[in-house]
Amino acid sequence: MKIIGLTGGIGMGKSTAAAAFRRAGVPVFDADATVHALQAPHGRALPAIAKAFSGTVTDGALNRAALRAKVLADPAALRQLEQILHPMVGQAQRRFLARARAARALLAVLDIPLLFETGGDRQVDHVVVVSAPRKVQMARVRARRRMTDSEIAAMIALQMPDAAKRRRADTIITTGLSRFHAVQAIKRFIGKQKQGQGSAPDPSRRRRAAHDGAVGPRPNFISKKDDTICSV
Question: Could you tell me which residues are beta bridge partners of residue 173?
């Protein structure tokens, strides 16, 4: 089974890409959805969050605005939240991959916003990065979330810059055209990967890009179209 790492910043169109993989019959692990479940009322992560961040959990429910205010303003607090959530998400991911292998899936997708930041790219066979112009990204987030532009910018700043992700990608989906173009490109990508015709990723290039910012060989461009408090 080939494991595809799907990543991209908030508002880049990654959800559209993940949905296209699902419609094509490829199992997808959604890290954001897993975090939401962990933070849902009486969710598994809430006792640890309540202990670490006073005033953020009341009657078994998370006050997302209060937690966001604490972690966006304090990198150490964000790391503490990640230390709570990441191991739990890792367990769910391992269970997902075990089920996909048992079902004899040829491909499985790990949809992880912070794939590079958490070193998850070392655990996949191929990295797909979804990217969009900054203006498009801001407009999408503004339309979906009740956040100010400064809050959106602060959330984006917590993630690896888009240019750095693109340098480390094996395949880039640049969003901006119609949804039809994106879906068709993803279908072509899936077909090539299942037939073993996809380009062979170069993990050493990813490592070089991570360490020195070198662009390295040009990744494959397949299309031009097209969150939780703590993404993983």
Answer: 130, 223
